[in-house]
Design a protein that fits this description.
alpha+beta, seven-stranded antiparallel β-sheet
């Protein structure tokens, strides 16, 4: 009888672990791209949550925000500092069918804690890393 109880407890633990793992995997894949706003035409801006703060050659550690429009994909490279509450757009890229058409380096300060896509991307990132004050 004790043996049957032990097996039942073990099977319950495995079932709970498996369902918890599946929920975590689903949540992680569901948040690969996070909507951080819309333009005036209603087209969304999407933050690539999987590449947050990864080093981008020529740009440093950035957040990547994408938008599809008229068959082109725009990539906005954003540098965010949660502790200093500074935010700037450092580059733009344009792609067509996976081929990079343009790349531009810039340095444009952006207001923090607004409803702009860059600011909302920063807010999501700062929350995700547990930065103080976010």
């Amino acid at each position: 009888m004790n043996y049957l109880k032990h097996i039942a407890v073990l099977l319950t633990a495995v079932a709970v672990s498996t369902s918890s793992f599946n929920s975590v995997v689903f949540a992680q894949s569901a948040e690969k791209f996070v909507n951080v706003g819309y333009d005036s035409d209603g087209d969304p801006f999407l933050l690539d949550a999987t590449s947050m703060r990864k080093r981008e050659p020529g740009f440093g550690s950035v957040l990547k925000v994408y938008q599809m429009k008229n068959g082109l994909m725009s990539e906005i490279l954003v540098r965010a500092s949660c502790g200093d509450e500074t935010l700037s757009i450092v580059g733009f890229r344009t792609y067509s069918q996976g081929v990079k058409l343009t790349e531009e380096k810039i340095r444009q300060q952006v207001a923090v804690r607004t409803d702009s896509p860059a600011s909302l991307a920063m807010s999501y990132h700062c929350h995700a890393i547990g930065a103080r004050g976010w």
